[in-house]
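Ticket #4471: structure output looks truncated?

Reporter: J.K.
Steps to reproduce: submitted the chain below (336 residues) through the standard prediction queue, then opened the result file.
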Amino acid sequence: MWSIYLNFQIANDMCDSQEILVSVCCAAYNHSAYIRQCLDGFIMQKTNFRFEVLIHDDASTDGTQDIIREYEMKYPDIIKPIYQEENQYCKGGKISLRFNIPRAKGKYIAFCEGDDYWIDSLKLQKQVDFMEANSGYSMCFHNSYILQNNKIIGKHRIYRESQEAIIGHVFRDGGFIPTQSILCIRSIYNDIDSFPSNCPVGDLKIQVYCALHGRIYYMNETMAVYRRWGGSATHVIRRNIDKYVLHHKKFIEWYKSVDEYTGYKYHTEIEKSIIFSNARIAIATKDFKEMRNSVYRDYLAYLSPLSRIGMYVRIYGFNWIYILGHKSLSLIRRII
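Returned output as attached by the reporter:
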């Protein structure tokens, strides 16, 4: 029986003859304030198998590399870094696909960026147990808390209970599946080079590719934390309207490429994703007249109730409250 990783140095000595089952891919850049919490989330994992942590530091300048080296020295059989001297994200992005996945030894790949972290010591064990017991699945994932200004402000909006993911939901622009929750089969990447590569977010490319080559399962547990902060790539883009608009235009072009790649098998789902991107462009450019088009009805329904109210005010002004109230009153009178 494989020993549990309670003491990692002893456990690794005992398990040297075992093959690595999970490779954790971690991208870090100027995460000195957060990287310890991320690495501790890896090290605390209790598993009956060996795993490795493949860290790619993208030429950090804030001391992140020094912290990673500290963990590398303490856990050399687990922590396996690459220290870049020049930033590689600026030369094409897709860090995991270019630098970590090609050197992965595990049967499975897990992800967690250096500013996010895991909070369940059995996360990997639970996900591996599911994948080993259920053939036909290419990926499983779970929910994550959202942390902003050091406060938990909620969770990702996924499903209310464990279930197989709907492929149309996976197509959304990278926001449906929390990256730090993913565990997927490594062998699925053997032919990923044939898949359209013009996706502006490497995580979404991975998620959609897995969805097209297997089933994806959602585990209704919250086992990680996604951190929102000003230095993340997502928020850097969101702060610049021109970059944000270009970002979603690139999504639209990629969706069209995927539509052609799949022989238009998922055309309905992809068209809906394109509508979602167009909605985000219209909102970013304050084209609220465009948002009155009925084609955006599903996008508005997708928003949280509070966000939906705010969006209706932007689109229709405060008159929509009177109109909605008048219609509701008329309906009540007909019922009575």
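Triage note (M.O.): checked the attachment and the full token line is present. The longest strand covers residues 215-228.
Status: closed, working as intended.
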